[in-house]
Design goal:
The structure holds two protein chains of two kinds. Chain A starts with a helix and ends in a 6-residue tail after the last helix. Chain A is mostly helical. The longest helix of chain A has 32 residues. Chain A is 80% helix and 0% strand. Chain A is built from ten helices and no strands. By secondary structure, chain B is of the alpha/beta class. Chain B has three domains: 159 residues, Rossmann fold (3-Layer(aba) Sandwich), CATH 3.40.50; 67 residues, Ribonucleotide Reductase Protein R1, domain 1, CATH 1.10.40; 66 residues, Alpha-Beta Plaits (2-Layer Sandwich), CATH 3.30.70. Chain B contains ten helices and 13 strands. In chain B, the strands form three sheets. In chain B, strands 5-6-7-3-8-9 form a six-stranded mixed sheet, with helices on both faces. A four-stranded antiparallel sheet of chain B has the order 11-12-10-13, with no helix packed on it. A three-stranded antiparallel sheet of chain B has the order 2-1-4. In chain B, strand 8 and strand 9 form a beta hairpin. In chain B, helix 2 crosses helix 3 and helix 2 runs parallel beside helix 4. The longest helix of chain B is centred in the middle third of the chain and has 18 residues. Classes of the chains: A mainly alpha, B alpha/beta. At the A-B interface, helix 1, helix 4 and helix 10 of A face strand 5 and helix 2 of B. The complex binds adenosine-5'-diphosphate and magnesium ion. Magnesium ion binds next to helix 1 of chain B.
Chain lengths: 258, 326
């Protein structure tokens, strides 16, 4: 039960902070929507000129944008949160949780994933209404796929947060990664190495589910396996890197902003 | 007590609450290593309130963070109820209030903070609500229950931080400079609460401060740190007694004429004049007693109004010990 109460505490705090700053949340959602409108108008215009910017047509754009949104929410939620906690001094208190800091951050990720799902669903609704492109939403396949697709991003979030614990000045670098994510989402995942990159393969598979009517069961087995493997790989790598830096921070006294 | 430290399950009453042994901590900095602790050892038994006293930079925070598992020592070892601080389950028994007021979430209200920290500790929601209501009342935070922490005064923030450590219900508390930056009144209020807590709930407390008043008010035993070393470790009354025995204070009716003063000075070389010559303080040498003092005063023709023991406070003791007088 202790696990449940600790998780509950983390989730409740997450929701309270969202509720307390609704403008923050709404304005970032609005920004994402406006960026999408611009992209979509551009793509449609290009299509009118006979140029097909997105291989799979406009649905491809919608799916890609969706994954990207999900990725940046996941990424910035985690890495900013960890850095903010370090600066506030509350990170040290989280480290003194009887279930360990790892359990706290895992709870945090689950909370953030659940909340991002809600945002992305809202954004998706808006996008479908605007574009008139109806996408298929078999939730049983979508949610696990989304989780697997975005897991590497949490791994990267951990890595960056670990770096930031020790090198306080790397924060400027954070935004840049969001553009790297664009490239990854758009990357055609057709070679094995391409499939091993974060986000690329997941985006393709989500496209097949939402546009072509595939389900988890009908997707190519190997692709799903590769997706699972990369999810685990990046997450483990990210946590490993985080722990490495955490060790350095414990040696040098950097868990709180010094 | 032959339980090997760092092993075994702690059972109440048989394991020393805190043990610090030959702790050394070097920080790596750009200008080379800084030695914050240079072989510090002390113990805290269950139920004790011990003060960790030292000037800024003496190493108090470093020692406390090592005990919290937030910092790795360079060498030496620390155990908390027989366990290494690096084990997460240690946190079931220890809560800490770390230096500075940023132990709580500034965007959360008083109540939300308390419930969060209770939940983090694994306390079920209903019990968490009960404890938090109880602490809100005890700390006089009733009207501020719904106020976010960033809007609280410094004193209230600190009370909230202490309450958040207490809501976890651990038998051990580590408090790093709990009264830092508070006004005199709030500081006294908080000292009272800490004292009461330790007594009424039988908590074991290690409290650090650079302020002797705080330690003298709350602790029975004090470990004095100076430049990363323990320079004294004793009960507060014993430390006071060390310097108490031979100092006397004499108040004078008519002041001290120069001639009398010269005569006195030959017999009492440690004589010091106080309060515009209305009083003097003197430390007797080992071969002198109060009679010798009285004789000297009479022979000098000084009119005495009263004699009392000069009561050294912890501050004197501290300064003398740190200067190496004992
Ligand atoms: N993270 C750190 N990096 C480098 N030096 C530090 C760090 N933390 C503390 N120090 C140094 O270690 C010494 C002891 O500091 P500290 O434990 O904070 O003392 P206190 O709490 O008694 O004031 C000081 O000289 C301080 O400057
Ligand atoms: Mg300190």
């Amino acid at each position: 039960m202790t696990y449940l109460w600790t998780f509950r505490a983390v989730l409740v705090r997450f929701l309270i902070e969202l509720k307390r700053y609704p403008l923050n949340t709404l304005s970032s959602l609005a920004t994402l929507y406006i960026v999408f409108l611009i992209l979509f108008t551009g793509a449609r215009y290009a299509q009118g000129l006979g140029v097909n910017l997105f291989g799979e047509g406009l649905e491809g754009l919608v799916v890609g944008y969706l994954v990207w949104t999900f990725a940046i929410i996941a990424y910035s939620d985690l890495s900013w949160e960890l850095m903010r906690e370090a600066q506030q001094g509350t990170l040290e208190q989280l480290y003194m949780c009887p279930l360990g800091f790892r359990f706290v951050s895992a709870s945090w990720i689950v909370a953030s994933f659940l909340v991002s799902l809600a945002w992305v669903a809202a954004l998706l609704g808006l996008m479908m209404v605007t574009t008139g492109q109806l996408l298929l939403l078999p939730l049983g396949s979508l949610v696990p796929l989304l989780l697997l697709t975005v897991a590497p991003v949490y791994g990267i979030g951990f890595m960056m947060a670990g770096l930031a614990l020790v090198y306080k000045r790397i924060q400027a670098f954070f935004q840049i990664l969001q553009f790297v994510f664009v490239a990854l989402v758009a990357f055609p995942a057709d070679t094995l190495w391409g499939k091993a990159l974060p986000l690329s393969l997941g985006t393709r598979l989500l496209g097949r589910v939402m546009v072509d009517g595939d389900t988890l069961a009908t997707l190519p087995r190997t692709d799903v396996l590769v997706l699972v493997a990369t999810a685990v790989f990046y997450l483990v790598l990210g946590i490993g890197v985080f722990r490495l830096f955490e060790g350095v921070a414990k040696d040098r006294g950097l868990l709180a902003h010094y | 007590m032959n339980l090997r430290e760092g092993e075994g399950t702690p059972t109440t009453g048989t394991v020393t609450a805190l043990i610090v042994e030959e702790l050394v901590k070097d920080y790596r900095t750009r200008k080379g290593p800084v030695r914050a602790l240079a072989g510090v050892s002390f113990r805290v038994e269950e139920g004790e309130i011990v003060g960790l006293l030292g000037a800024n930079g003496a190493g108090k925070t470093t020692a406390i963070k090592i005990l919290c598992g937030l910092l790795r020592p360079t060498s030496g070892r620390a155990t908390v109820l027989g366990l290494s601080p690096s084990r997460p389950e240690v946190a079931r028994r220890v809560a800490a209030l770390l230096e500075g007021s940023r132990n709580v979430y500034w965007r959360l209200s008083v109540e939300e903070n308390l419930r969060f920290f209770a939940g983090l500790q694994g306390v079920p929601p209903r019990e968490a609500r009960r404890r938090s209501a109880d602490l809100v009342a005890r700390f006089g935070l009733g009207d501020k229950r719904r106020t976010t922490a960033n809007l609280l005064s410094q004193g209230m923030k600190q009370k909230l931080a202490l309450a958040c450590a207490l809501v976890k219900g651990t038998p051990l508390l580590l408090l790093d400079e709990p009264t830092l930056g508070l006004d005199v009144e709030t500081s006294h209020e908080l000292r009272g609460m800490i004292r009461e807590l330790a007594v009424s709930e039988g908590k074991t407390v290690l409290l650090s401060s650079h302020d002797m008043g705080v330690v003298e008010d709350t602790c029975r035993r004090v470990v004095i740190l100076s430049r990363g070393r323990v320079v004294a470790d004793d009960l507060v009354p014993n430390l006071l007694a060390l310097f108490q025995t031979r100092a006397y204070r004499v108040s004078l009716r008519d002041g001290l004429p120069a001639e009398a003063r010269a005569r006195l000075a030959t017999r009492l070389p440690t004589l010091r004049l106080l309060e515009a010559e209305r009083a003097l303080e003197v430390e007797l040498s080992p071969d002198q007693d109060v009679y010798a003092l009285m004789d000297a005063l009479r022979e000098a023709g000084v009119a005495v109004e009263g004699v009392s023991r000069a009561e050294p406070d912890l501050e004197d003791v501290f300064l003398r010990i740190v200067r190496g007088e004992r």
